[in-house]
Structures are given as structure tokens and as C-alpha cells.
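Annex B, item 7. Sequence and C-alpha cells for protein A, then protein B.
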Amino acid sequence: MKEQEYIEIYGARAHNLKNIDLKIPREKLVVITGLSGSGKSSLAFDTIYAEGQRRYIETFSAYARQFLGGLERPDVDKIDGLSPVISIEQKTTNKSPRSTVGTITEIYDFLRLLYSRAADAYSYNTGEKMVSYSDNQIKELILKDFDEKRIAVLAPLIKSRKGHYRELFEQIAKQGFVRVRVDGKIREIEKGMKLDRYKTHDIEVVIDRLIVNKDFEKRLEETIKTALYTGNNILMIIDVDNVKPRYFSRELMCPTTGIAYPNPEPNTFSFNSPKGACYHCNGLGTTNEINLKKVIPDDSISIKNGGIIPLGEQKNSWIFKQLQTIAERYKFKLSDPISSISQEALNVILNGGKETFSIQSKTAGVTRKYAIDFEGIIAFIQSQYKNSDSSSIKRWAKGFMDEVSCSTCEGKRLKKEALHFKINSKNISQLAQMDVTELFGWFENIESKLSEKQLKIASEILKEIRTRIQFLLDVGLDYLTLDRTSKSLSGGEAQRIRLATQIGSQLVGVLYILDEPSIGLHQRDNEKLINSLVKLRDIGNSVLVVEHDEDMIKHADFVIDIGPGAGRHGGEIVSKGTFDDLKSQDTLTADYLSKRKLIEVPQKRREGNGNFIKLIGASGNNLKNISVKFPLGKMICITGVSGSGKSTLINETLYPILNAHIYRGVKKPMPFKDVEGLEYIDKVIDIDQSPIGRTPRSNPATYTGVFSEIRSLFAKTPEASIRGYKPGRFSFNVKGGRCETCQGGGLKVIEMNFLPDVHVECEACQGKRFNRETLEIRYKGKSISDVLEMTINDAVDFFEHIPKIYRKLKTIKDVGLGYITLGQQSTTLSGGEAQRIKLASELSKKDTGNTFYILDEPTTGLHFEDIRVLMDVLNKLTDKGNTVLIIEHNLDVIKLADHIIDVGLEGGKGGGEILIYGTPEEIIKHKKSYTAKFLKKELKKKG
């Protein structure tokens, strides 16, 4: 074989890789698998992708590179046969409310182009089709329709606006015009002429009066030009005998009322551009409005006793002095219940007012003047929300507001003009609200609804839109709508959208590296995803996937298994070849794939403690007013296809309710009617997929809090006590005990102009992070730096007799992370490892037996063996009487649950209902449920 048919890697040593050499076939679907932390991501992302990226940046000029910042060369001797690399990771997408599915996939950009070039405009006043003419067409129409008639040609300037317009009349007179038409009557302009400023007026300038015939054609032409120039591309014709006006415009215009739209451009339909965004909500679709019920929740309390929540109880402040003045003016006392205060006075308190009034003092017999100058409580809260720099004040102000759909655009984000451009009687916002399947159907037969001219313009754009929608369908995202904000997408959805966008670009000869694309995907949609990757390979790309999913491994052309253990026990290639080659090997992965090892189904399901939490009438996003019972003391699994409403039900509705009840959490739950049974739990813990730390200074010891205990222990040693060292002395983040040369980092960054920054070991402390004096303090012969270098397994034995430290470390070991070191940088932990550290940190706290744990897809990034270890931990928790609720697609987890709640049937609009609930054995009897179908196979296979 020719050399270039492989990507050849020599001497890869990134993180825990043990100097490995490897040949990966090109233009094939290659899967890298192995235990969590064995080095899969180190090989795929930190070696192959990092080198590809570095080579790309090397092609730039030295001048350009200084702005990009250098990329560090990965720790590898050499890589041959590397194509340009594109990585599709699970990085969470843009959190901006302006980013939507439509904007990420570029479908919305093509829709904007389509609407700006091929849509018909309709008047928002009369619903008539808008018209626009060239100067020549206007002349021909006037000659034809007003032949031999006496007409006045006018240029409209003011349409239904208030004002006296004196300056405007002076300006018109200076331009040489002598007549204007004001509110339907033609008048001569007089010196100092002005109108009633409080009434609305229509004003047009009379450009010319003439009889229409061929002799005056030249004059008519000049008049039309002047009128269009003066009237901003609109002119008006009045037949002297029949006074009804007619409008003509170079731009789009309503033939009856004369309102005009500017000619559409793509950004007329963009909610991120001032040209298209709704004025009221700035294109966000929602506004924050004050909720009076939150400002005055109980009107039987007086203002003095804190009836107005933002103000609190009466104190000696300017605001209360103003309220006292208002009270005197409207004859009430601050100690009266708010319900007895007149509506007029309440209006001034809430919305503000300015007035001066006099009150005669009965005792002194003199009259005193009082001034009210009060901005109003509502305006005060709004100004604090808009203008304050403090996030806590903003949060305080937001507490009195509700996020409501914008009253002007009704949540559609665009100006009303943009919403009156239609194709086949649908505006762009209506298309963005359709789910992808419905949208595809709409575009299928659109040609028959378009005119010949529209077809000519739109044919290329339609082709682009269709292919992009098809790619979204191919990766199983048929339930998304284009207006769905990207911050509401799960990690797996965001990754598959990026995958669809990449397939859409149709590049060839590229190496794609994907990080577990099957996350958050139901077994039903796995097939679609695998087909998409096969398609990418077939057009001539190499596809490298880091994955644990059995189906994906089966479909791979070549499988690389990294192991044999994790962390420092991994980093070697234990097997490579086809799926069949892998099964015959003696590795952990092979044991599970060939069913030599199994995750056993429990003999009997737990009965629970007989109590329930009942959620009634949940209707957020696509939930269809459902009521759900969560049995306590069991392991509950929420299943269903992607987009069916699982996250909405648990993360957006149930968790915020529990959090608000127990910890006074501020997150507002999605709409629901009622909840029962909260008294049966006393703690709720949510463990999600977000990373535990983004700086190299964060590590498992600091995150779990065990490092504080270790520092306190070192501070109590006799030597430390003699020297007067406190726990802070043993921190590498504060001055005192740390090495000041590298500021406790252990590494120094050497900046090389034009070349990548180089990280070298600090020569002062040899990478130990602390100064000499601190390192002299030893506990059982080990310094604080030695302790950070220990693996969790070693540390468990070392601290065996210190219960506080031992308990926390033991839990980290129990979740299968015994191989990581205490001081390992958080940035080098895989997604699965970070989530298990969170889990360990929660598990090490004393549980009450009434704790409610919520885990969102905890098997992300976990190998079969890791899932077994994790489920052992969760089973122990449930055995103590706690409730563990897991949102999951992984059948190994689902089959272990005591109670399954299946949401479905489809995603998006076709979901949001509870299909069936009960034990796995009851679930598999359901005919329609997709989960039931796959679970049945799984229980047969391993039951």
C-alpha cells in the first residue's frame, strides 16, 4: 500500500499516552474506544487535531500569527499523512439569546435572502398587495388614467403626526413652493403659518398643477422627478374634479393608503439588525415587564409595614419623605392598608408625578407649600434593571418582573413591515416556527405556488435550503424549530447541528474528529447518525470518532481500543482492527462486546417508601399539560426520544420547583398548575454535564473541598505550629507559601514572538508549586506537593486514619476515579471524569435518606465498565432510602431502574406526553413506545 493511505503517528506522549506508534487508515470510519480517562481524547484531540490545527496556523504569515497566538506543538515525534482537520466537539454552543437553530445552520440566512428577493409585500393597513413603479411607468399610468384631466401633483411629507410645523412651512417656501395641502385642503403658504400642535396632521407639498396631455409630457416628467425627490420616493395625484387621491412610489407602496415599505434587503428580515428587529424588544421576542403582584403581593398591609416590597418597612429616607408628601396631598396615612388608598394616589406612587400644592396648617395658621417630584416605583425598578452595573441589583430588579412575550411583535422578533412579506401566504416568522419536518414538507411543493419570475430568482436558494433541511433530518433533529434558541439545546443536539452544517459544506479530503456524537440520542435515531457519518466517509473524507456506543463500534471500518486501564494505567493501544478482531481480544471492551461480561439486571425491583411527588399540569415548551407521579425511594429513569420533553419536565420544571422549595432558588420553573408531596424530601442535588473548572489552578482536590482539610492537617503538624503557619500557607493560590517565581502554577510560560508560547517547569521550585520553607513541613514523610502528586488510590491508604479526608477520597475512588492525581488540572479531565467528580463531591456529604438526586445523562463519556461502577454507587444511594432520578438513553442504565417514565412519542410537537410508566417489565409491553422496543431486545439479550 502507498504510504499516504494511512495517517501515521510516531511517539505520541500527550497526557497519559505512553509513546505510542499507530497507523490509522484514511477515508474510513474509525472509532477510538476504551475506558474513560484511558487516553482517547488525548490521542484524537490533543495529538491529531492539535497538530492539524498547528499546521494550519503555520501556513499564515508571521505577521498574522502574532495576532492569533501560537498553538503549542503536541507532544509527538511526527505525524504523516494528515489532512486538514475539523473537530466537532461537545462544546456547549453560544449562550446568546440572539443565536438560534436557524442562524447556526445558516438556513435562516438563506430564508432571509429568499424573502428579500422573491416575496410579495402586503399592506399592513388593508392587506392589499403592495406595488412599486419606475419613473417611466408612473408617467405612462398618469397619461393613461388622467388623460385631459386637471390634476395636482403632490409630495407627501407628514403622515398622521402631531406638531405645529412652522419651520417645515418656512423650509418649503424657501425651496420655491407656494402651496401645501393640509388635512385634505390646499392652502397657500403664509408667513409664520403654523398648525394646532396637539392634533394629528397630514401635509403634502403641491409640486405642480397641470392638464394631462401629450403636449405637457416633458413638464410632467420633470414634475414627477421633483415630487419623488421631495416626497422621499412617493408622490400623490389629485384629480381636481374627483378629490380621491392616488399614490405612486418607486418603493413598495399600498395603492389605497399610500404607506410605503423600504425595498427589502436580507437584513430587513434579521432580528439581529436594527433594520429588521422589532423596536420594542430589540429583536429578542420577549420583554421584562413589572408584575404588580410581586411589587404589592398583599394589599391589606400598610406602606409603613412594608406593603410595597421593593421599599421594605418605613425608614428615614428620601423616598419615604416623598411618600409622606403624597399621603398629605391625597389625604391618607402611610399606616393605612394599601387597599384603602385611592386609585389616583396609587397611580402617583407607582408611576410617579410632579406637582406643587399648598396645605394650611391648622395650628400655626400659615399655608405651607409642598412639592411632589417622584419618578414612581415602577420607573425606579426599570431604571435600576436597565442602567445598574451591579449584577445583584439587576437580579433584585428582575425579581419584580416577568419575562413576557413582546406586545408589539408578539414574540416574532421582527418589525411589522418584515412580517408582511409573504411567500405562499406564509411570512418568514411562520416558517421559523415550523419544526424541521413540517418545513421540509412546505418546501417540497413550493415551486407550484411561485410565479415564473420568482422561480427564476429562487431556484438556487431553494436548492441550498432543501439540502440543509435534509441534513438536519438525517442527524435525527426533525423536531427542532428554526427559532429555537441555541442556549436551550443539549450538548448532543448542538454537536449534531454542527455535524449537519459540516455535511452541508460538502468538503472532500478532510479529517473529521467527533467526540461522542451519540450523546443524548435515542437508540432509534442512532441509525440516522451512523448513516450521516458513513455519507461523510463515502464522499472522500476520513472520519475519526471517539465513542463507546456499541452500534457505532459495529459499523466502524477500523476500531482502536486504548487501555488497559485509565489514567496512568492507560495510554497504550491494546487492540486495533475490525470489530470482529476486537471481540476476540482479551480487553475490557472486548469482554463487554462479546457478552463475556454483563451489567446484570437486578432480581427484583425496589418497592420505594410509598410516598410520591406529584407534578400537575406541566405545560412548558412542548409538554401537553401533563401530570406525573415520581415515586420516592426508588431509582427513576426518564426516557424518550430526543426532543420529547424530558429536560423540560425535569431540568426546567421539577428541579426549579424543588430548589425553590428547599433552598429558595431563584430560577423560575416552566408553567405548571400544582405540585404535591414536597414535604417528603429535605435535599435536592442536581448533577449536570458542565465542566468543574476552566483554569489550570482548579483540580479534583480543590473542587471536592478535600484540599482545605489537607491544608488544615498540615497546619496542625508540630513543625508548622512552631513556625506559626496557618492553612493559607499551604495554598498555591495565595502569597506566603507558594513559589512566587511561577505564582504557584508549577510551570512558567515563556512567550516567544512569532512562535508558540512554551510551558517550562519552574526552575525555582522544580514544578512543586511551593517555596522551600513550605515544603519542609512534612506529614508522614510527605510534603504538600507530594500529596498533590498522589493518585486517589494511594491517597485513600495514606489518609486512612483521618475520617474527614478519607470519606471524600473514598467516594472519588468509588466512582471509578482512583487513577487520577489529587492535583491534576481540571482542564485535562474528560467530560465523564468531571461529572463523576461532581457526583463524588455530592456523595461525600452526609445524606439524609430523603435526598432527591437528579442526574442528566450521567453515562456521557463512560465505558461499559465505568457505567457498571457508576450504577453500583447510585444503587447504594437508593438502598439508603434516597431517590435517584436519571434522564438517560443508555439501555444499561434503563434496565436497572425501578420505575421508568417514558415521554413521547416523537420529538418536538409530536412529543410532550407521558406514554407509559412502571417497571422495565411493564414498559416493554407497550406497543408504540420506541424505548419499549429497544428495551425488550436488551432484556431478552441479557435477562
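Protein B:
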Amino acid sequence: MPLLEPKPEVLRPGAARTPSPDRVPDVRATGTPEPLRSELTALLGPEKVLWSVSDLVKYASDASPYRFVPQVVVVPEDIDDISAILSYARGNGREVVFRAAGTSLNGQAQGEDILVDVRHHWAGIEVLDDGARARIRPGTTVMRANATLARFGRLLGPDPASAIACTIGGVVANNASGMTAGTTRNSYRTVASLTFVLPSGTVVDTADPAADELLAHAEPQLCEGLLALKAEIEADAELTARIRAKYEIKNTNGYRLDAFLDGSTPVQILRGLMVGSEGTFGFISEVVFDTLPLDRKVSSALLFFPSLTAAAAAVPRFNEAGAIAVELMDGNTLRASVSVQGVPADWAELPKETAALLVEFRAPDEPGQEAYERAAAAVVEGLDLVAPVASVTNEFTREARVISGYWKARKAFVTAVGGSRPSGTTLITEDFAVPPSLLADACEALLRLQAEHGFDAAVAGHAAHGNLHFLLAFDAAKPSDVDRYAAFMDDFCRLTVERFDGSLKAEHATGRNIAPFLELEWGPKATELMWRTKQVIDPDRVLAPRIVLDRDPKAHLRGLKTIPEVELIADPCIECGFCEPTCPSHGLTTSPRQRIVLRREMMRQPGGSPVETGLLDAYGYEAVDTCAGDSTCKLACPVGIDTGALMKDFRHQRHSPREERIAALTARNFKAVEASARLAVAAADKIGDRLLETVTGLARKAVRPDLVPEWLPEIPGAAPRKLPRTSRVGASAVYYPACVNRIFGGSEGRRGPSLPQAVVAVSARAGKPVWIPEDVAGTCCSTIWHSKGYDEGNVVMANRIVEAAWGWTAGGKLPLVVDASSCTLGIAHEVVPYLTEDNRELHRELTVVDSLVWAADELLPELTILRKTGSAVLHPTCSMQHLGDVEQLRTVAEACAEEVVVPDDAGCCAFAGDRGMLHKELTASATAKEAAEVNSREYDAYLSANRMCEIGMDRATGRAYHSVLMELERATRP
């Protein structure tokens, strides 16, 4: 064992705990049982079988209120693996559930036996017919697909609020729709073809002209059964009319029986049935969508009404005016949205009765936009709107930033409202639809029903389509609360069906939540046809047997998850999964959601249980060590949960007092440390990579991998010993070269000035000279200590840099320009909690400017571009995302290159200072997709604005990245 290996005991929850009724039992502490584990390992290979108790727990939770611990998790890479898994399940009487993003809200992505992760190896998009169609793999997020399609002026029809995280496979399997899809733009209407694997292992490509012939040969009984069901339905005129009527409004409850009416052959019927089947009929391995025009002329308004019913009554008028979206938000939703960054703070003061409509019109051109705006103005003129707080304008706008803010608030409905629920409560998200003409009545009835059962729920929805969502919070550990929820569901389902003839699930799909109420909505005849359809397609009931169809009248009450309290920063988490695609470690170890899920399971356990011990043993590496600490999870989380900060705190807790003292000593003597580091890097050029890799490798084993960096061949040589000469007299700004740029030089073989030389030169050319203080050596942005959780060292350096910066800038009279985005973030924001009260006052007087902003806003307007490179690919860093200066990176790059590309898969490189040297596997995993995209073609320049991230991308791509400011200097050099 390494000398300084931290003890897992340090992170054991210390508070007295009452074991939860749904805790993982001790018998599961050893993970997947035999022979299941060894048989699947032999079948698929050890790297595709996840079997530890930590693996099983982190896959047990998703965005739904349910929690089921699988027996094993498998991660297939291709269709052959899928077929092998299904064959194994059939032959051994096992059950299989597919899971991609885990954003489903009704438990359909949870399994109790074999859970199949179909996200990690199943991403990709191919644009067809100049964007008119797109072939997309099921692990691709909707946002990622639309980013590619946007270049062609196209987008997908389905637009769920979870687009940042939800994947195409789940969208099609649930027939998820969203804000604008309604009944005409959803998956059922816009999927051109599917490729899927049936429970038997048969692969069907519905686009293949010979598909029906091949299927008849491989599955004759299946074909006969489907055609027999089709004939039976078509012979029943009453049933046929009922099926057609049910899909006049949004409906995802049960199977798409209209597939039997719309399809004339078994393959065509299956193509329809697969949409909305929730993984119970087969695995969708590829989807070809018919895309839709991306109308870029947008006009939106957020209109406020005195009541929910008043807002609902206005919806038909906007529908008639041609609005593509009319979204409803009640007072609870509006007030909870204050937790979302950018939402006006005064919304917290809105009266509870207030409601709002987010109305949007989209047009392909200016005349169309103007026509829509005239129609909208006519509608607004006849409405009695209110303005209860100062930020309310009740006006239509074309301003993209404002519109984006409106949608951010609306899309955060589940997460923001859920995040504000009482601690320890489970969140239920209900979703139903009524004919749009009955929406106002439905709102009134829903509010009355909620009050009768003691729920103060939040309501929002796609009002244009009669589709409402509401949230309920209760304590799943209290039988009385569960009984109250059960009674409400009985009354709610009867109300929706009997009074409004509505859909019990408009777009979230049946799942486990509504399965017991399927017959209430559809009646015995149609429901029995669904059971028979399942029998025809999956006679062995291999796929998700208790999802969609379940004869247990209390199935929706089974598996409700408790939500034990965890650390305050993470406690609001509703496990939605929005954070996962942005997390650098989600493809390697754990995601932010999983880090919190694992922590919650520790809290469910009695102290010292075998399960808790097993989770703690794995948590150090899987959660704490391999967290990049970049906090991009905070940006993706609608309520701003910073799991990276939690992991840094855990790092701090694991430090011994001796380690903290050493870190503080390093901070106090950083001038000597900095000089030694530069000399070591210079000496390394003469020693050779192989020897250094060996030496550092041995040191890591002896001391601790998370303390000793590993030497990497991509580490550049030393920076010039002296910084450029500058003068304080006449300086427009103080220039602070980050310590990484004082230690490391440019990429090997790159000619030209260093980054500090480039910044000084290009600033002078623009007539805005900068001054580098003579005493910058020994100062740092403090990120070195902050990222590792060394609080004492962080306090030392944070206060030192602020005091120095205040003096350099003459008390804040000059801006402080910083040449590394992570260092800008550190000085501008991250140091603040560690400052003394006096130094916080000094900090408030500073203006900290990232070099990208300095170049784009101050220098470019005064510069003459003399030469451009042909093409440039950019790596926006996570710090740029936090600072909001990605656009400045693009602006500067576009001044220097004829073509500028930001990869669709660009994300945090996870090099994170030196974390990429401590855990190089983290950077390899985090950059894999971006690197593949970058290396799919040649570029003339590879640009970023953070030296350590550039080293990380050098390693990932084999290309030489450099700062965009160095490129700007070259472009403007006389």
C-alpha cells in the first residue's frame, strides 16, 4: 500500500442514522452473485460486466421516484453483444432492462435483474440528404444531435426539456415530445426508419426493402401474430374509432395501437410499435429521423396572469395566432425558478395565485416574423395581464438572451421545483393531457384535488397541447405519506379519464407509475390487445416485464425510493441526470448524480454495515480522486449543485494535519517552489521522457497516485527565465502571467514569442500597453490548493494574490488581465470564500479580466489583421464556460482564421491543473469524443487559452495546441 494512502473511514458518515427500509441488504455487499457474474464475464469479457456493490448502487437510481438494484450491469459495445445478452437471458430465465441517460421519470429505465447500459458505446450522428434526414445512434443526446443539424438549418421534432441529457434511444422508446412537438412533430410522426433487435435476437432494419421477407423467414409466428391482431382491430369499427380518438391529443400511455392501423406489413407495424414501447419490445440500435426546418426568426414573451385558470383560458387564442409553443407556469413554479441563474430575483415575491404563459412564434424570414408579431399583439390587447413585480414586462421580444432566460426557467420546472422541496422527500412528476379546449377546467379541478389531499403542488406544461405536468413531494419512508399519495393517484386518474377523457401519460410514457391504471384509461378490450401484442413479440417475457404492463393494482407503490439527507450542497439533488453529459469522469468512473446516489446509500445504511464499507472502499478513487473538480456539473444543474465542490471538500477531509501543513508551507514559499519547478522542467528536456516516466511511476506507487504527478511526454519545456520588460507608466492594464505560463513554455517545435511576450506585443500594437509587476513570482491564483482541498494553503495564497493585485492595480484603478482562463476564474471568484473580511473589501474593488475578453473587447477594435491562417479548431475550457467568455474565444479566433470550428463534442479535458498527470486515464476518457472529432480532419491551428488544458489536448489529439492570443500576435505582426 502507498505510504500516504488515505483511509476510507474518514468519509464514513458520522451522524446517527436510522437504517432506511429500502437500504441495500447486507447480502448484496459482494455485488453480482455467481454464477451470473462469471457467466456474463465469459460471454462478454470482464470490461463489459459491472458487478461491484458500488456499480449496482449507482445504477439503481434515475430521475424517477423509484429505485431498484440490478443484479448486474452490462455495457455492450455492438449489436452482437446485445444479441448475446438477449440469448443468455432467454436461455436462463433472466430479465433485461435497457438504460441510456436515466432521465425517464417513471421508472422504465430501472431493472431488478440484468440492466444494460446502452449509452457509453452508442453515440453518433450521420447527416443525410443535406440535413433533411439524420441517422442517429441511441446514446446520442438530443442536444448533441441538434448541434450538428443546426449547421444545416435543421432540427429534430422532439424537444424534451431534458434535451441536454436525454438520449435518442430513450426519446423514441418513450415517444417523448416536449415543448413544441405536440402530436405532429413527435417521434412517431418523424421517425423515417428504425433498426432494432427483437427479444429473439433477430435484427430488423425497417428501411431495407427486403425487411418483411427477411422477417417472415426468421420470425414467421411473429408476423402471423401481428397480422392477426391487425385484422382483429380493423374488424372492430368502435375500437378503431376509439384508437384514433385517443391519439388526437398527446398520449404515451400503453402501446401505440394505431401502429396496427397505420402499418400494412409486419415490419411497418413493428416500426410503429417500437416507438413508445419503453424497451419492452426490443433494443433500438439506430434511428433515421425526418428533420424539420430550424426557423431562426424567433419572437417570445412571458405573459403574467392573475390565476392559473385565466392563463389557461388564453391558450386557444395563441394557438389560433400560430404560436409554436405556449407554455404554462403556475406561481409555485415561477417562485422556485429563482434558484436558476439568470431568473429575476423578484419572482420570489410573486403572489402564489400568479401564473404565466411563455409564448413563442418562429418564422423562416422577417415578413413571417412581423406577421406573427401583429397577430400576437392583437391577442395580447384582449387579455387582462398583471405585473406584480418590477421585472415583468408582458412584452414580446426578439432578444436571444432574454428568450433563452425564459426557456431556462421553464425547462427547469422539474429540477428547480424539485430542488426546493422539503429535505428528505421523494419527488413525483405527473404528466397528463386533456383536449386543449378543456385545459382551464382541468387546471381548476387539479388544484382542487391537490388541496383535498394536502398537496401544494407546482403546475406547468405544454398548454398549447393540453398537456400539464405537476410535482408532488412526500416522504416515501412514511407509510401515511405513501397512503396519501396512493389515494391522490386513484382520484387523479379517475378525474382525468372519467371527466376529461384525457391521457394519463401525455409524453413521459407509462413506466411503472401508471401501469396499474392502464385499463382504466383504455378499457379491457384495448388493454388485453396490448398484453397479447407483448406475448407475440416477447413470448418469454425477457424484456422489462413489469414496465408498461402490470396487473398488480399497487405496482406504482413498489420500489418508491427514500431520499436521506446528505451534505447540504448536494441535498437538493433530484437525480435528474442533467449533469452527466458534461462530467469528464462519467465514462470512466462516476458522474455527479452517481456520486450523490452513492452517498445517499451510505446514509441509508446502519453504521459499519458491509454495504457501507464496500461503498466507502470504492468511493475514494471512483468519486473523489477522479473528479476533475471543474464544476461544469454546476452549470448543467438547473439548481446549481456543485458536486465538484463537494469532492474537493472530501479531499480536504482526507488530508492529515501534516499534509495540510506541508501544503501551507508550499504556499508560503511558492517563489522557491515556482523556480524549482521551472528548473525541473528545463532539466527534464535533457533527461528523457522514458526515465522520467519510470521515476515518477515508482514514486507514485511508493507515496500515493493522487499526490505524485506522472511525467507525460507531452509536457513542454521550460518558459523563458525572464518575463518581458514593461513599464507601469502609461499602462492601460496590469498583466498577470499565470504561474503555469511562467513555468511551462510553448509546444515543442513551435516558433515565435512566448505567451507573455505575445500579450505584451499585441497590447502595445493596439495602443493599450500592459505592465507586468516585478514581483509576480511567488504568487498564484490559488487553484493549486483549491482543487486539491488544501484549505490552509488556499487561505495563504488567496489572501496573498488579492493583496498583491490590489497594490498592482492601484486599488483597482487598472484592470488585472490574466492569461489563463482557470486562473482568471480563481482570482475573480474562487478565492473569495478564503479571504479575510478586509481582503474581501479589497477584492470588491478589483476588475479581473480574462485575456480573451481583453483581446476581443479592447484590442481587436484597434488592431489591423495582416494575415490569417486557413482553419482553426478551438478548445473552449470549462473555466471559459464558467466565466461566460467562450464567445470571445471565437471572436478572437475568427479574426485570425478563415474558418473556425468548435467541435460538437467539445468538453472539459479533465487535465484540471495536474489532475491529468495524477490520473491520465481521466483525461483520456474525457477527451475521447472531442479528440476523435478533431482528428477527423486537418486544421492549420489548434487553439485554446489555458496552458494545462492545451497540454491535455496535445496528449489527447497528438496535435500542438497554443493560446489564441499567440495566434492574434502572429496575425497582427508587422
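Comment on protein B: The first helix runs from residue 36 to 44.
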